[in-house]
Amino acid sequence: MITRRKFLTSAGALAGSAAVLQKLGSAQEVKTREPNKPRETTAAANRNKPLIERVDPKPTLPPGEAGKDYTPVITPNNISLPWKVVDGVKVYHLVAEEVDHEFAPGMRAKCWGFNGHVHGPTIEAVEGDRVRIYVTNNLPEATSVHWHGILLPNGMDGVGGLTQKNIQPGETFRYEFTLRQHGTQMYHSHSDEMTQMALGTMGLFIIHPRRPRDQRPDRDFAFMLSEWRLDTGTSRPNPNEMTDFNVFTFNAKIFPATEPMVAKLDDRVRIRIASVAVMEHHPIHLHGYHFPITETDGGQIPESAQQVETTVLVGVGQSRTFDFVADAPGDWPMHCHMTHHVMTQMGDKFPSTIGVQPGNLDKKIRASLLPGYMTMGTNGMGEMAEMQMKVPRNSLPMVGAPGPFDVIDMSGLLTLLKVREGITSYEDPGWYKHPEGTVASLAAADDLRRDGIKVRAVPSAPERPAHHHPG
Ligand SMILES: [Cu+2]
Questions:
Q1: Strands 219-228 and 268-275
Q2: Would you tell me which of 172, 243, 312, 332 could form a disulfide with 288, CB atoms 3.0–4.6 Å apart?
Q3: Closest by CA position to 101, among listed 77, 76, 73
Q4: For residue 308, how far is the Cα from the chain centroid?
């Protein structure tokens, strides 16, 4: 359906030329004119349209049912918010509250979320559903909940002070509207956003199409991206941080705590990625596949306009959805391509030591200042993952988790897509077993000789004391 909003866009493109406007008549007529239709007919038709249509042009339909009307979405490391149907309306209850959240084993923080989860559980519904959402505020300050990207009456938009009174601590508010769209939307607090969202008060709001344009996905995964400032030794994310974030998460988890996406070979897979936090955009790259971006937060992209990508840029306040057939088995990483976003609690206030020859500096410092001191990173940062260094209480090593071949030098915004042939459940199948001869490995001397590859001997790495890691 073509909405009036779209006409406003075309009117904007025309507005530069006064001559064009004169030819077409008044600006109002330009705004309401449907392209390729005689002006008089459309303008007259629009004048007679009741205003209410702009607000709620689609009827409420019977509540959509899982299995019959849609395949439920999977929110790794989180759940869908339970609901019940009362007189044809889906009724949900969100409780904003403090949550003791585990980012990964070894690292917890007091965050703010909903119903015991950080971020809040995914609200899942179907186009045409009537939803009634109660919001109870158990936070120590006033809040409100904004339904981000959802078309609804202005007074249901959830902007504290502007479209409603703030929800005071202890109060419960009622929101109610009919879902006139489908897609990947979000919800988040819209009072003292800086504090509340930095602490995690947001969630996904997935609306399935009543009549899908294409075949339904077999596996439908949804992620929310976030960044946090969580200093070692503290127990709460710092909302005052503007640019210098040090924890990056998929659904508020850090790899290896991110639950993998598991798919059977040739499953149709949908991945939805959304972000309303806080300052950073994230180019999310999936290995092993090319995929068309099929939806934005504004809805489906016509097939002729879909771009095939390997990396999707998700800006703050946006959602992006892509679809593909899982035809390549393996363990494929999906991660942010900003290299600092696959690090955790990385100290960045140090000069680079790559290539530095520390000589006897370490010995001197150990003798006079810090007994456990060791100059790190002279050959790069990967060694930090291999050493599995001891870290301060309630923090994580900034890179790394054990992998099937070596330590994986990434944490933060990293998760895995595990595609397998012949699996009978979607439980984590463990590491991929590669067919023989398909793994990169040390080149054999015979191969090098046959192919005329000459290798210059590399200088050996500088010696370093073993097992003397700074605590
Ligand atoms: Cu990023």
A1: parallel
A2: 332
A3: 77
A4: 19
For 126, 183, 209, 271, the CA distances from 65, given in Å and listed in that order, are: 8, 17, 12, 21
d(CA 290, ligand 1 centre) in Å: 20
For residues 150 and 181, the answer to whether their CB atoms sit within 8 Å is yes
Mean pLDDT of 306-323: 96
pLDDT of 449 higher than 60: yes
- 249 C-alpha to ligand 1 centroid (Å): 9
Ligand 1 centroid, distance to 341 Cα (angstroms): 5
Q: Give the contacts of 329 (CB within 8 A, at least 6 positions apart).
A: 265, 419, 420, 421, 432
Residues of the chain with pLDDT > 70, as a percent, come to: 76
3-class state of residue 201 by DSSP = coil
Alpha helices per DSSP H over 71-227: 193-198
> Alpha helices of 186-234 — where are they, by DSSP H?
193-198
Q: Which residue has the tokens 């290539």?
A: 355
- Amino acid making up residue 450: R
Model pLDDT for residues 362-397, shown as the tens digit of each residue: 777 777 766 666 666 666 666 655 555 566 666 666
Q: Which residues lie across from 295 on neighbouring strands?
A: 300, 321
Q: Which two tokens stand for residue 206?
A: 């997935």
Predicted pLDDT at 213? 76
Find the mean pLDDT for residues 348-373.
69
For residue 195, the tally of other CB atoms under 10 A from its CB is 16
d(CA 283, CA 286): 10
For 26-74, the pLDDT digits (tens) are: 333 334 444 444 444 455 555 555 444 444 556 789 999 999 999 999 9
